Amino acid sequence: MDGVSINWFAVLAAAFAGFVVGGLWYSPLLFGNLWMRVAGVSEEQVAQGNKARIFGFTLIFLLIMSVCLAMFLATPDITLQKGALYGFLTGFGWIFFAIGVVALFELRSWSYILINGGYWVVTMTLMGAILGAWK
């Protein structure tokens, strides 16, 4: 890892972008209602959840993912386009299908896989674009 140069502001921005995408993705504006139904979560359960724990750990996890992606992208020739491509490949090729494998064993629906996997494809693509553009 010698010589790896990471833009920590870009890491923070990419993590925050993932947080914003999640807020929209799982809201009633997009897939929130369908996600609650296919995940078997009620509005009451969501309302009773420990918000500090949920959002705090979500931000920490997104920061860790952003740092790891930044390390993968820490090459001199990285661009917005390459960052977006590598982010997409990470989201689709690894995370989407990892969610799919677990969901199949949990007997979850295809809607569940598409909603949760789709979030990660979009998020990792955006994170990669930010990290690639802002090196």
Automatic annotation (TrEMBL):
Superkingdom: Bacteria
InterPro entries: DUF1761 (IPR013879)
Keyword hit for Magnesium: no
Transmembrane segments: 6-31, 52-73, 85-105, 112-134
Keywords of the record: Membrane, Transmembrane, Transmembrane helix
Keyword presence, Disulfide bond: no
Signal peptide: none
This protein's name: Preprotein translocase subunit Sec62
Organism of provenance: Congregibacter litoralis KT71
Taxonomy of the source species: Bacteria, Pseudomonadati, Pseudomonadota, Gammaproteobacteria, Cellvibrionales
